[in-house]
Design brief:
Length: 342
């Protein structure tokens, strides 16, 4: 499912918080990992002095030493080699250095190098701020149109160096077939309890899928208080919806083959309900489809998924259901191409 995993790094401890999660995915899905560092020259407006060639070469050499050390550490954790189609040994971890604008290079590399999953930290060398996602991460996830795992750099609760499993995995559904595209990834994560240290006892560890749905009261185009007849009809609709959703989740639970819990909540805001569930249920990772039943191809993510990516507090895996080939270029993209910018 995820054969090639990309981790963008910038040399900061914040960006490196994505590494343990990428290692876990690599062990579960038997993936190869590619480390990418983009060196961005200082612009003229920031520094009118020309970039010194010697300084630039030193910077590239430092980046190479840094990535080489990270690659050695990851190989030790996930295994040195994998076998290609010809049965030949191939390193499971490679690294690449690029020069230029950071976000653009990450996106272009992911598309040209056939990346299956981007694992990226919410913050990097720019440090923590009041914004939940850094500007570089925001740019990348907006245009990459690939499955993305966002690791919250400001939340250290999941940063165990020996991350062996996600114990509680939240899968919110809106009962649409489209939203179920996140299901296979959730199942594999629940099955993938792996120890990188054979001496480590993880016999008591287990992963549980929390299948969740949110029921929203009907929106009525009249002011409150509602007439008694409308209130009764609304209550009946909610009760019928609750029974139907429980039936849907329980049928799903019976056929998944992994340990599951079901949860149905009522809330006027599905986005708020998912955030509250993730915190209250002690969730380790949230798995979402990029769009639900009402999602539009014109945007990379639906409203609820976008909300959790930007405002959630747990790591979130988003399965992109819209291939890049179906994406219509925006007015900004068209204007940039006309001006010679990419």
């Amino acid at each position: 499912m995820f054969n090639r995993i990309l981790i963008p790094l910038d040399g900061s401890p914040l960006a490196e918080q994505a590494i343990p999660h990428a290692e876990l995915f690599a062990r579960i899905f038997r993936s190869n990992i590619i480390l990418l560092q983009v060196l961005e020259p200082t612009s003229y407006h920031e520094n009118p002095k020309a970039v010194d060639p010697l300084t630039w070469q030193i910077r590239k050499a430092e980046a190479d030493i840094y990535l080489h050390g990270i690659a050695l550490r990851i190989r030790k954790n996930i295994g040195e080699y994998s076998l290609n189609n010809e049965g030949e040994k191939k390193s499971r971890v490679d690294y690449v250095i690029r020069e230029g604008k950071i976000a653009e290079n990450i996106i272009n590399f992911a598309h040209t190098d056939k990346i299956d999953l981007l694992v990226i930290s919410s913050h990097g060398s720019g440090g923590l701020s009041r914004w939940n996602i850094s500007s570089v991460t925001q740019k990348v996830i907006n245009l990459i149109y690939l499955p993305v795992l966002i690791v919250r750099a400001y939340n250290r609760s999941n940063m165990d160096e020996s991350l062996n499993c996600y114990r509680r995995i939240l899968l919110p559904f809106d009962s649409s077939r489209r939203a179920e595209c996140s299901l296979s990834a959730g199942i594999e994560l629940a099955r993938g309890i792996i120890s990188s240290d054979k001496k480590r006892d993880i016999s008591g560890a287990k992963s549980i899928l929390v299948l969740a749905a949110v029921i929203r009261p009907p929106e009525l185009p009249i002011p409150e208080p509602f007439p008694i007849e409308i209130t009764q009809l609304s209550d009946q609709l909610i009760e019928v919806s609750r029974l139907a959703v429980y039936k849907y989740l329980n049928e799903m639970k019976m056929r998944l083959g992994v340990e599951c819990e079901t949860c149905v909540v009522e809330n006027t805001s599905a986005a708020s309900a998912i955030q509250e569930l993730a915190d209250q249920e002690d969730i380790d990772i949230v798995v979402l489809c990029a769009h639900g039943h009402s999602g539009q191809v014109a945007w990379p993510y639906g409203t609820i998924t976008r909300n959790y990516m930007e405002h959630g507090t747990k790591p979130v895996l988003v399965i992109q259901d819209v291939p890049l080939s179906q994406v219509r270029p925006t007015a900004a993209v068209i204007a940039a191409e006309k001006s010679g910018r990419r």
